[in-house]
Every structure is written in C-alpha cells, then in structure tokens.
Amino acid sequence: MANAPRKGPYICGIDAALDVVSGKWKGLVLWELHAHGVRRFAELRRALPGVSEKMLTQHLRQMEEDGLVHRTVYAEVPPRVEYSLTESGAALNEALRPLGEWGRDRIRRHRLAVAPDLDAPVPAGS
Amino acid sequence: MANAPRKGPYICGIDAALDVVSGKWKGLVLWELHAHGVRRFAELRRALPGVSEKMLTQHLRQMEEDGLVHRTVYAEVPPRVEYSLTESGAALNEALRPLGEWGRDRIRRHRLAVAPDLDAPVPAGS
DNA sequence: TGCGGTACCCACCTTTTGGTAAGTGAGGAG
DNA sequence: CTCCTCACTTACCAAAAGGTGGGTACCGCA
User: Fold this and answer.
1) Which residue from A55, A74, B4, B68 has the least number of CB within 10 angstroms?
2) Are residues A13 and B94, on separate chains, in Cβ contact within 8 Å?
3) Which of the residue ranges A16-25, A38-47, A113-122 would you say has the lowest mean pLDDT?
C-alpha cells in the first residue's frame, strides 16, 4: 500500500522523528543525499551495500511522502530520476548529527564492527 | 531470543545510534527515565500507555545490555527493581533532543499549514 | 542478436517485531 | 481464603518489515 497507516498519534517529538527515520536504510539515504546533494536511483543503490531495489524504492517513496526528499522524474528514453533533500530533510539531517556523533563515539568506545568498505572496494591484491 | 545478533557492522554513527533506539518504546523509556531519574518497573509500565510487560522487560534488558540503563535489584520480599540512565544513556538523550525538536516542529507544521498541492487530509469537520 | 543498464512494479516468502495470556511465589488487604 | 501487587518468564500468534526473483519498455553497445 502506498499509504500505510503509519503516523499514528505521537507521544512526543522523538516518536514522530523516529517514525520517519525508522527503516533499515533511511538514515543512510539521508546521509548519501546530504553528502552528494543530488543522486540518481542507481547511484543510491550502489551506495548502499546490500539494499534491494524494492526496499530502496519503498523507502524513497515514504520519504517523499513524508516531505524529506524531492523526486524529479525526467521523461527521457533511458529513465532518469533524481533525488535530493528537501528543507525538511536537510533539517532532519542536522537534527540527526548529534545522534551520529553519539553513535560514532559508541562505536569507538565499544570497538564495534564497522561497515565493510563500500566506496572503494577494489582489492589491489587479488 | 534474549540475545539477538544485533549490532551488525555499522555503516555510520547514525546507524549505530538508531540500532540502539529502535524499538517501539525505547525512546519513551529513555524520556521517562530522563524526566524522573529513577523509576521502578511498574512505574514505567504505567507511564507508557499500552506497553505490554513482555516488551517493557525486553526493551529494558536490551537497553541494559547496550549500556543505556542501569538496573538495580533489591532482594526484598515484594520484589523491587529500579531503573535509571547511565551516563551513556543520558548522553544519548541529549543527542536525541534536536531530533525531538525537529519532530515537534514537524507535528506543528503538519497540523497548521497544509501544503497547497500534495496533502490535503480533510480537516475533520464531519 | 543478445546483453546490460535504467527505474521501477508485482507476487511470494521469511524474518523480525510486537501483542496476549498464562504462570511464578510471597506478602498484604479485604 | 481469595484476590491483588511486584517483576518478571514462557508459549503461542499476528502483523509488519524486509528479501527474492520475476517482468516491464526502451536504449546503446558489440
């Protein structure tokens, strides 16, 4: 369903914000879009290791519906769709920054596993 | 299971932080504990409308495991268990504050100003 | 001619999450 | 004597989230 009954009555702002960022890849999408400004579908897909097309579409649609991202479709022969953050999305990203710092701190402190590299895989050795 | 293989390799700090706060009631528990300092199990349960005992226990256990809350058991005849935030938990709450403000802002905005083109969700007039 | 790339949609399946209801054992209220 | 409270645990279920693999319509490349 395009319009799930999310957005139930919220108890506090945290609730509302978490509702909007909950989803396996939403935080990363936000981050990617923030880092690059504008990204095409396939670029996002390549940027998120292991995401399925379905999930990416689904998340992007919800985020569009939630007013976080802007979607531009070019009616060209090879389809082209560009995604970028709206003001609201950018503000959310800002609001997420302290959380990200807390998370990095936590990773450092607990020596947690960090992602397998995604931007420069190309193992030189083999 | 009590010990799910969460804490997979993280891609960024946001990831790690969201992992730790994801759960229907965790944000609220954090908030309650922050607001009151120390709370007993039943107090928390009463504070969260609709939470089941199972979920509350489960969330509290995970949060303890994640080093967010401190759990003190008094070996008394009517059992008594007190929960409070650890330093890490308090810091997380701080980091969550801008997010909460963003959420409140979002709630406000969507109540008053309806966007001219996309959503016009019926002002409930009956 | 066949393949890969583009940006999806769809049906089906598994995993995860959350909810319901019952049981525990001792003490205090009625 | 029975019920209620405390802080859980366990077994069982339902719903949501996420994953898999297919198809679409068109293009350029070899």
Assistant:
1) B4
2) no
3) A113-122
